[in-house]
Amino acid sequence: MINIAPTHIKKYCVCDHSDKIFESIFNRFDDTNMSINKIKCTCGNDLFNVYTDPNPTVKVICTECLNEIIVYDLIYYPAATKCPQEDDVFEMVTLNLQSELNVYAVYEYGDEYEDENDISWCHVYISTDDDLIEIVNDETS
Ligand SMILES: [Zn+2]
User: Fold this and answer.
1) What is the predicted pLDDT for the residue at 130?
2) Is the pTM of this model over 0.85?
3) Calpha distance 2→90 (Å, rounded)
4) Domain ranges of the chain
């Protein structure tokens, strides 16, 4: 994997091999151009309320300090064009009725990416202790 991530998320990205779910995502995606991350707030908490809109955009809010973190938003990536839609409304995502979730993000870079924001694909996962689902699987360009 590569140790870069888009600038809006970089300081929240950790590589935690002691986390079984991180490890399973890592084993699935590990490759030269892949940035594989668990999202952790700067306050140390890793549980979030998760919101998505149809673009798709993903934002998460730390359940401890209420810090808002953008995980995926097409406005940040040079390869993307964000077209506003009428139903651009954020909705909360839950998993097994739980709303406090761990979040993982995988950013893929092309062979000749220009900088850390020049991603070509993004996957976002949410998990509880015993379940994991993909909420975004988006080709950025
Ligand atoms: Zn926090």
Assistant:
1) 83
2) yes
3) 31
4) 10-139
